[in-house]
UniProtKB/TrEMBL annotation:
InterPro entries: AB_hydrolase_fold, Tannase/feruloyl_esterase. Coiled coil: none annotated. It comes from Marvinbryantia formatexigens DSM 14469. This is Tannase and feruloyl esterase. The keyword Transmembrane helix does not apply.
Length: 569
């Protein structure tokens, strides 16, 4: 049993006793039962919350009540707040205080262009902390909708005037997240009678962008940050996700999905992959021309197929040949299988009735850029040429540059004492992983020696994987693995050198592969070691990981957040 003490100002606080005990992919802490619940019941009142927030005149307590016992937790005191912010967009902040508290605060984020998540499933099949599993681990938790109600994935454009609501974009960028952190801590102190001993923030994808932005701008808000597969380079990411479609349209040659799969598998085979992924984050050597003449489910691969695939792998560039950003790595299943949008991923292929294929844009990214950059919700992306993409990129940087979190100046974070765990799946199918490596290299170049940077920032590139999920081929980090590593680094000074990784099968409720992922450094890019098959691996039938992911999502989609994300009537 651990009793962790931490000095904060003049107060000596004791965190609730707990044990690190991983019992599920998102359950890593067992917290002792509250022996004096009556005292907590007495403090958990609307009057107490209002008194704690009296200096925040723009915050109204909508409700504060104990929620009934749930499948995932015991009793939780849920506080719903309305914060009047910028541009007349009230944000809903929710704070969750479990009866059995581990003495810590864990802030939850969103994804895409949302500052909080809608569906509970994202906290189970993905490495994303949601309020329900934060409180199940004994954390007080919080999130905010950033002033964007409902479950829309496109907002901020007045289609009549063509004006953009920049206040909402700035809320998404950084304002709402910081405000949530400040307000939630006051609520937590009011409920428990003491401040959190440690505060953490975790997020993936767009939530990873939120997390890293907070670490750059307000590092004093939290003791530890974990940014997973983060959208660090926001506008460059969108250009990369548009590139495959653009190349096929401009070159007037569509590479069929069956052929793309052959290129993927050959890249893995030629680089020594044993389990449908490449076991290192080092740069690959792969020439698509080596696949010419091979058979696929969509026919024999031609020289034109190889030429177009090379353009796609090389990544987006200007008309005069200068690189704009990175492409998706060979070996990545980046077509029609991403985690976000009806058609996700970096190059989406639609099957037509006549048996042909049509490249289309990622549906979520399309709605974002249609609204914020093109200001035309009916914009026809099939007509965009290379010059048009270049001009689009320049405009996107001008309009939504605030969503970038690629500032290499982490001096404030270093001085605050906070720890930043940065992780990215090499074969992320939505955000090119080389962008995260690029950011790390720029941080080292700006801050000085890598040994100094690694005292507060550590990067792990997990071989294989997909976008935020733990079922794709590769050694994936579960929520339990990452949060345990971050907490031990923050609270015990145990900086992670190796992290456990798994490929998980939810049908068998067991890992298929296990191994360890090494710390990334400039001289020694990360790789996995001790990769081993489990008994579940032998039992598993062949399956398409991306299809399974979609099936799991649709199966549980009806299970929306009863406990977060909606303001009470």
């Amino acid at each position: 049993m651990k009793k962790i003490w931490k000095k904060k100002g003049e107060d000596l606080l004791m965190a609730q006793s707990f044990i690190y005990k991983e019992t599920a992919v998102n359950q890593w802490i067992w917290t002792e039962e509250n022996q004096e619940p009556e005292k907590l019941y007495a403090r958990a009142t609307i009057e107490n919350i209002k008194e704690a927030l009296k200096e925040h005149e723009n915050v109204t307590v909508v409700s504060a009540q104990w929620e009934p016992v749930h499948d995932d937790w015991k009793e939780v005191f849920r506080v719903v707040l309305s914060e009047e912010g910028y541009g007349a967009h009230p944000a809903t902040i929710q704070v969750f205080c479990p009866l059995d508290w581990n003495g810590r605060f864990l802030a939850c984020t969103g994804g895409g262009i949302r500052t909080h998540h809608i569906y509970e499933i994202l906290g189970r099949e993905n490495r994303i902390v949601m309020p329900f599993n934060a409180v199940a681990n004994g954390f007080a938790a919080a999130n905010t909708d950033g002033g964007v109600p409902g479950d829309v994935f496109c907002f901020g454009l007045d289609e009549e005037t063509k004006k953009i609501d920049y206040e909402l974009i700035l809320n998404l960028a950084y304002r709402s997240t910081h405000s949530m952190a400040v307000i939630a801590k006051k609520v937590i102190e009011a409920v428990y009678g003491e401040k959190p001993a440690y505060s953490y923030m975790q997020g993936a994808s767009g939530g990873g962008r939120q997390t890293l932005t907070e670490a750059q701008l307000y590092p004093e808000d939290f003791d530890g940050f974990w940014a997973v597969d983060p959208a660090i380079n926001w506008n460059e990411m969108i250009v990369s996700d548009t590139w495959g479609m653009l190349v096929m349209n401009q070159e007037e040659h569509v590479v069929a999905p069956g052929k793309m799969e052959v290129f993927r598998r050959e890249a893995i085979r030629q680089n020594g992959g044993r389990y449908d992924f490449i076991e290192t984050s080092e740069p690959l050597v792969f020439d698509p021309a080596s696949c010419v003449g091979m058979e696929s489910a969509d026919g024999c691969i031609t020289e034109e197929d190889a030429r177009v695939m090379k353009l796609i792998f090389d990544g987006p560039e200007t008309r005069d040949g200068h690189a704009i950003w990175y492409g998706f790595r060979p070996g990545t299943h980046f077509w029609s299988s991403g985690a976000i949008g009806e058609q996700g991923g970096g190059c989406n292929i639609r099957s037509l009735a006549d048996g042909s294929y049509q490249p289309i844009m990622n549906s979520m990214f399309e709605s974002i850029v249609d609204a914020w950059v093109m200001r035309d919700m009916q914009y026809d992306w099939s007509k965009v040429d290379y010059r048009g993409l270049e001009e689009f990129y320049k405009e996107a940087v001008r309009v939504t540059g605030c969503l970038e979190c690629n500032n290499p100046d982490l001096y404030q974070a270093e001085q605050s004492g906070a720890k930043i765990l940065l992780t990215h799946a090499v074969n992320d199918d939505t955000i090119p992983s080389d962008g995260t490596i690029d950011y790390y290299k720029r941080v080292v170049a700006y801050m000085g020696q890598e040994s100094g940077v690694q005292k507060f920032l550590r990067l792990f590139m997990t071989p294989g994987g997909g976008h935020t999920d733990i079922t794709s081929p590769g050694l994936n980090l579960t929520t339990s693995i990452g949060m345990t590593a971050l907490m031990k680094w923050v609270e015990e000074g145990e900086a992670p050198e190796l992290l456990d990784g798994v490929q998980y099968d939810f049908e068998q409720k067991a890992p298929l592969l296990t191994g360890k992922v090494s710390l990334y450094s400039l001289d020694n890019p990360g790789r996995c070691v001790e990769v081993a098959e489990t008994s579940a691996y032998a039992k598993r039938d062949a399956y398409d990981a991306a299809q399974r992911k979609d099936e799991l999502f649709m199966l549980k989609k009806e299970k929306t957040d009863r406990y977060y994300g909606k303001t009470e009537e």
